[in-house]
Write a structure and sequence with these properties.
homodimer, alpha/beta, six-stranded mixed beta sheet, two-stranded antiparallel sheet, 30% helix
Chain lengths: 191, 191
C-alpha cells in the first residue's frame, strides 16, 4: 500500500533494537483517515470471504480493527491481556510474548463471542515474531471458528513471524512489509 | 440516548460490586454500528467547539474514540498505561486508579502530540469514580491545551465521579446516566 509506505518513510523513526516508531500516526496518536484507507484495502483483499467477526488484541490493534470493521459491517472482538472483573465465565486463553516489552502474558477471549460458525479475520498493527498472531489464531482454532486470515498493517519481514505463520497455512496479508531498516542512515527497504 | 439505554437494558448484566457488564457490545465485543451512533450524538453535542484532537485511555476507550473521531475529522491520541520501548522522550504523566481492577497506575502521553493550541475532547466508555477522567484532564491542563469537555458513554450516576468533575468546571456529557441498578432484580434506573 503505497500511501502507507510513504507515511512510514516520512514519519517512521527507526530506533535501536529493530524498533520502528510510528506513534505519530499508528499506535499512540492515530490518523483515522489513514485507518479508513486500511479498511478499503483489507476489504479489497478479503471480500467474498463472508467474514462475520474481526478479532484483535489490546491495545494498539483496537482502533485499526474498529475502523476496518466498518467496511465489513461486522463486530470487533479484542483479546484482553489481563483478567478483569468484567470478564467472568468461560474463556479461551493463549500465551503471548510481546516483542516490544519482552513480557509474557496470557490473552483471553470470552467463549460467548466466538462460535463455530464464525468466519474470523484477525487485524493487528504489527507482525514481528508472530507471537500475538499465533496466540490469536490458537484462540480461533480452539473456538471451532474458521480463521479466514490475518490483515497486518506493518510486517517486519526480517523477523521470523510472517514466514512462520504463512508456513503453518494461515493467510497473512500485510499492507507494508519491511525487509531492511537501518538505524544509522534512517533508510527503510520495503519488499 | 434512547438507543443506548435500550441496549443496556437488553444486554447489560449487573454484577456484584456495582459492576455493569456490557462486554457483548461495548468493551470486549464491540458493536461498531452503535459506536457510529455515539459519534453522531457527540458531534451534535460538541459541534461548534472546533475540536482538534480526541484523547482517550487504553484499552476500552480506543475503539469508541476512533469511530467517534471520524465525525470530527480529527486524530485520536490514547494515554498508555505502561511505558514501552515505543514511547521515548518527554511525556505528560498522571496517576489513575482503576475502578474495575483496583490497580493504581501511571498513564502517559507523549508531549509531542498535545500542543497549547489543541482543543481536546476526552472520550471514554465509563465514568464511575472519575479517576481516569481526572488523570486525562490533568494531562490536558499540563500540556496547555484547552479541554473542551468529556464525552462518556455510560456514567454511573450513583458514584461520585460525575458530580466531582462537573463541580471542578469540566463539561461532562454522558450518553446514559445510571442512577440505580439492582443486582437481584436486574433493574436499571436511568436519570
Amino acid at each position: 500500500m503505497e500511501l502507507l509506505k510513504e507515511r512510514i518513510r516520512k514519519d517512521g523513526k527507526i530506533k535501536a533494537g529493530n524498533v520502528l516508531k510510528v506513534d505519530s500516526f499508528l499506535n499512540h496518536q492515530m490518523d483515522i483517515d489513514l485507518f479508513s484507507e486500511f479498511g478499503k484495502e483489507f476489504l479489497n483483499i478479503f471480500k467474498g470471504e463472508n467474514i462475520t467477526k474481526i478479532l484483535t488484541i489490546e491495545s494498539s490493534g483496537i482502533g485499526i480493527a474498529c475502523v476496518v470493521a466498518q467496511y465489513f459491517n461486522v463486530p470487533v472482538l479484542f483479546a484482553k491481556k489481563n483478567k478483569t472483573k468484567n470478564i467472568a465465565g468461560e474463556t479461551y486463553t493463549s500465551r503471548v510474548e510481546s516483542f516490544t516489552t519482552g513480557r509474557v502474558y496470557d490473552i483471553i477471549v470470552s467463549k460467548e463471542f466466538l462460535k463455530n460458525d464464525d468466519r474470523v479475520l484477525i487485524i493487528d498493527d504489527f507482525l514481528a515474531n508472530g507471537s500475538a498472531l499465533q496466540g490469536l489464531s490458537k484462540i480461533v482454532t480452539d473456538s471451532g471458528a474458521t480463521l479466514v486470515g490475518a490483515g497486518i498493517v506493518i510486517e517486519k519481514g526480517f523477523q521470523p513471524g510472517g514466514d512462520l505463520i504463512r508456513k503453518s497455512g494461515i493467510r497473512v496479508e500485510s499492507l507494508a512489509i519491511i525487509d531492511e531498516m537501518d538505524e544509522k542512515s534512517g533508510t527503510i527497504k520495503f519488499r
